[in-house]
Amino acid sequence: MNAIVQAAQALPAMDGSQGLEEQQQYLTFMLSGETYAISILRIKEIIQYGQLTEVPRMPDFIRGVINLRGAVVPVIDLSARFGKQPTAIGRRNCIIIIEVALGAETQSVGVMVDAVNAVMEIPASEIEPAPTFGTNIRADFIAGMGKINGKFVIILNIQHVLSMDDMAALATAGSAPSAELVQAG
Amino acid sequence: MIPDEYLQTFVVECKELLEQMEEALLIVEQAEQDPEIINAIFRAAHTIKGSAGMFGLDPVVEFTHAAESVLDRVRSGEVAMTSVLAALFIEAHDHLKELIGHVAEGSHPAEATDNHGKTLIARLEAYLGETPAEQPGNSGSSDNSGEMPVIQTANVEREHSDAVVGTDLWHLSLRFGPEVFRNGMDPFSFVRCLASLGSIEELVTVIDAIPAAAQMDPESCYLGFEISFSSDADKLAIDSLFNFVRSDCFIRILPPRSKASEYQRLIQELPEQEMRLGEILVKCGTLTPEELDNILRLQSQHGDAPQRPIGEVLVEQQMVSSPVVEAALAKQQQVKDNKKSEASLIRVDAEKLDELINLVGELIIAGAGTNLIARRAGMAELMESTATLSRLVEDVRDSALALRMVQIGGTFNRFTRVVRDVSKELGKDIDLVISGGDTELDKTVVEKIGDPLTHLVRNSMDHGIEAAELRLARGKSAKGTLRLNAYHDAGSIVIEVSDDGGGLNKEKILNKAIERGLVAEGANLSDKEIYNLIFEAGFSTADAVSNLSGRGVGMDVVKRNIQALRGSVDLDSIEGQGSTIRIRLPLTLAIIDGFMVGVGNASYVIPLDMVVECVELNAWASDEGDGQYLNLRGEVLPYRRLRDHFVIDGDMVQRENVVVVRYGEHKAGLVVDKLMGEFQTVIKPLGKLFSSEKSIGGFTILGSGEVALIVDVPGLMGQIEHEREAGEVVPFTRSGVVMH
């Protein structure tokens, strides 16, 4: 865990300077009634929630995989990733395809959200640093607090949220309880 | 500068040559005095030197030259190829390999490497029996062996005692043929090459052959050189520089202190006018004006002599003795033969191949989609045409995959060297027996199997095979035997490493495992389970940690590496008689024939190689309580519902089916809802996120665009086994031991 946090600290330096000063466009989306934003730099595309194949024995936040033009892309349920209820499937559900750095390569990961709102400009002056506590998601997931129309939205540090090391570790741990479940049944 | 791609080709070729060289050296070391093998070593060294010279890689040229000179003497029978010398050459080979490695990386060798090279050169030169400073012309007398290099013999035993030209320099006359440029050669590179053997004292470029501008073809070469050259190299070494252009060029090499008559012949043979040539020779400093006069006088006396074949002239002149000519002819023949076999092979970038395989994969997915649409549309003609298409695509797939198949023999042969080195280090006498070298498997698998195999081989030699005294005491021959074997079995390739050593000591392993906390005390394990404990992390039974093995890292790494290739490893042992380690690997990693089954709404693909048969559950299941096994024609077949294992919701279907799968010696049933038939499956890797899930081997995309999961049968069976154990007593305190 420590290693992840350390590695994570190295990243925002790059992300932060680019994301907060030069580039100020963010995509806002809804997740169980709350608004979040992510920098559009890493977003590849947004697709409608469609045919998804579940992968057995995986933790809740790994929703499954989809076929993105011949490539198999994992889909993460962001709400479950934040430790909340898994997203209920509705009419406006979307999957945001995000490129995540994995070592020297990048991997596409889908993020399932309730609804996508808009691409907004948030000037750097309107972004406050993340509070150390008080938010209901892990502090290292937050890149900053952006002010839109006088309201705060959480700008996510998507590289941390979708950290492969972190998620794979959880997936390994996640398969154990499901094994017990099988035993009972 | 030389383009990178050529340098790459050079490196690849050198590596191949070095491999051949190593192979030959190892045979020679076994006291085989086959001249053909010595020749092979010489040729390899010679080609490396030649190509390295063209790239201006001086350290390589310098080093190879020393090796080549000694080899040449071995070849001519002056120096015997003892095992000591062979061992020296193996060291030289290693050094050369390192040098080539540096070339490939574009780095410079460390000083230690350089020094090592110099030591090796010195050791090699000791075999030359002459100090390099001596002139080849008079070194004959200082060579006390009595047997002298052929060329020098020729010099000394010359019949005529006509005037000797007083220069200490070699004289080279080069006339490049018109095709030289078109054949991709650069005359200048030869000159540069030459400079690596000595120093060029004087060089006159002969441009007399250049025609008038109107007739001149810019792609033709009209150049010639007259070179006066100081070198300690022997004639063959200088001569061999020009192997690449010999066929269409005029090349004459006169050793120092050649007779005037030889110069006279040279002048006669050269296309330019006599006077002009004479002037050039004088300009080169090869001849003094008086000597030239002398020669030209000789020339006029013999003026009417008819031209004889050059070879004959050379032999008569004893410039080269007839064995040398024969050797040269034989060499030319071999070069031609090599070219023939090269013509049937194409070197292809592995990446291009991967790209092709990927495309074929996409093609299969697209084809499956078209098939589905055709069937839905119900057009007979369209269905027929897609059926033809699928058959062709299948063929394309097979041949594309076959492109990547390589024989495992190459990998096995590398172990000849490992066994030699390690047995020396250990002071054991061990024979390596290789069989099944022609078994083919995917290139990517071959590349990744080398390290684990090395480890297993070393381990067998270190811990498996006993010391000679102990072997004799146990009534075995003092010489240990290590076997490498490969064969195909049920869609996988099996690689066996076996030794006739002491075998594994069950007690010792069990005690160690209990001590290390790998196994609970009092656990009841079968022999096989005990043996396979050695693949656990942190396990080592060697009492003393040796340089080779015994540090307790290794066997678990071996197992992990093999599992990463979707393979498995297990071990058989008979105490006192030896042990066999069996590695089972899939043939290919990219595309497989799959058998599609449905459970709930999801589709799963089971590799077809693993499927033995399909039966209906109700017809065969035993009615004995909730026991999950059935009576398959008198055989007990345990089964497992995929629905339960994968925790899939949904209603149970009326008629469940059992897919009987086999993996190695194990058979089991997987209960599924629907059987959907065969399906060509392109394996998409799991990715980091899912790699921890052992029961799934990968994803694939169905014709409908849906993603299906590929069942990893060994992984799944391991999981089931593991859960069963977890439900009963807990024999292991840690997870990870997979038993079948």
TrEMBL record, chain A:
> Where does this protein chiefly localize?
cytoplasm
Where's the CheW-like domain? Answer: 23-167
Which InterPro entries is this protein grouped with? CheW, CheW-like_dom_sf, CheW-lke_dom
Write down the Pfam families for this protein, in alphabetical order: CheW
The UniProt entry's GO biological process terms, in alphabetical order, are: chemotaxis; signal transduction
Localisation? Cytoplasm
Residues annotated as signal peptide:
none
Q: Can you quote a single GO CC term?
A: cytosol
Q: Which UniProt keywords apply?
A: Chemotaxis, Cytoplasm
**At the top level of its lineage, which domain of life is listed?**
Bacteria
Q: What is this protein called in UniProt? A: Chemotaxis protein CheW
The taxonomy runs:
Bacteria, Pseudomonadati, Pseudomonadota, Gammaproteobacteria, Methylococcales
TrEMBL record, chain B:
User: Where on the chain is Phosphohistidine found, per UniProt?
Assistant: H46
Give all residue intervals belonging to the Histidine kinase domain: 382-589
Where in this chain does the record put each HPt domain? 1-103
The catalytic activity, as recorded, is: ATP + protein L-histidine = ADP + protein N-phospho-L-histidine
InterPro entries hit by this protein: Bact_Chemotaxis_CheA, CheA-like_dim, CheA-like_homodim_sf, CheW-like_dom_sf, CheW-lke_dom, HATPase_C_sf, HATPase_dom, His_kinase_dom
* UniProt keyword list: ATP-binding, Chemotaxis, Kinase, Nucleotide-binding, Phosphoprotein, Transferase, Two-component regulatory system
* GO CC annotations on file: cytoplasm
Limits of the CheW-like domain = 591-722
State the source organism's domain of life.
Bacteria
GO annotations under biological process?
chemotaxis
Q: What is its EC number?
A: 2.7.13.3
Which SMART domains did the record assign?
CheW, H-kinase_dim, HATPase_c, HPT
GO molecular function terms attached to this record:
ATP binding; phosphorelay sensor kinase activity
SUPFAM superfamilies, sorted: ATPase domain of HSP90 chaperone/DNA topoisomerase II/histidine kinase (SSF55874), CheW-like (SSF50341), EspE N-terminal domain-like (SSF160246), Histidine-containing phosphotransfer domain, HPT domain (SSF47226), Homodimeric domain of signal transducing histidine kinase (SSF47384)
Summarize the protein's role: Involved in the transmission of sensory signals from the chemoreceptors to the flagellar motors. CheA is autophosphorylated; it can transfer its phosphate group to either CheB or CheY.
Protein name per Swiss-Prot or TrEMBL: Chemotaxis protein CheA
